[in-house]
């Protein structure tokens, strides 16, 4: 293997590693939904950030075709290994990869909204009701 081929291979491998790092960041972001919902009960200063994360995610999953983090990971994989996976991230890694079950993209969107976004909004609803009850008692 020549020096140029070796350097090219290292560059491709580094893009694949960056793609995997972006996947880990994606997983951490999704984990922040329920964790963030709990955090806002104890640290109200986190509320604006939590609202921004939740509603931007809702926007991308309802009105856009894919998440920007998934697009970024796929771009890195195309550069690194010449191809990517054709399905959305969670469908590819969770449903097909872990459960060996192919589901529709619409099912994945609904699943993510029901399991991550809605539970993260419950503490916000609790704080809103608590605020309204405490401040507007007759």
Describe the structure.
With 138 residues, the protein is mostly helical. The radius of gyration is 20 Å and the shape is elongated. It has helices at 3-42, 47-63, 68-81, 89-98, 105-135.
Describe this protein with a few key phrases.
mainly alpha, 138 residues, 5 helices
Enumerate how many helices there are, as a single number: 5
The largest β sheet comes out as: none
Uncertain runs: none
| SS elements, strand count | 0
Beta-strand content estimate: under 5%
Classify the secondary structure makeup into a structural class: mainly alpha
Order of helices and strands: HHHHH
Terminal CA distance: 81 Å
Mean pLDDT: 84
Estimate the helix proportion, in percent: over 70%
- What is the approximate shape? elongated
Brief write-up:
This protein is an all-alpha fold and 138 residues long. The protein has 5 helices and no strands. The radius of gyration is 20 Å and the shape is elongated.
């Amino acid at each position: 293997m020549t020096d140029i081929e070796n350097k090219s291979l290292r560059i491709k491998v580094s893009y694949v590693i960056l793609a995997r790092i972006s996947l880990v960041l994606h997983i951490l972001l999704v984990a922040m939904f329920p964790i963030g919902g709990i955090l806002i009960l104890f640290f109200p200063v986190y509320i604006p950030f939590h609202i921004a994360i939740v509603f931007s995610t809702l926007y991308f999953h309802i009105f856009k075709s894919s998440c920007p983090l998934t697009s970024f990971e796929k771009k890195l994989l195309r550069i690194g290994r010449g191809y990517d996976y054709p399905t959305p991230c969670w469908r590819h890694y969770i449903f097909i990869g872990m459960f060996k079950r192919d589901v529709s993209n619409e099912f994945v969107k609904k699943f993510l909204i029901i399991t991550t976004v809605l539970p993260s909004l419950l503490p916000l609803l609790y704080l809103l009701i608590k605020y309204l009850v405490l401040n507007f008692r007759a």
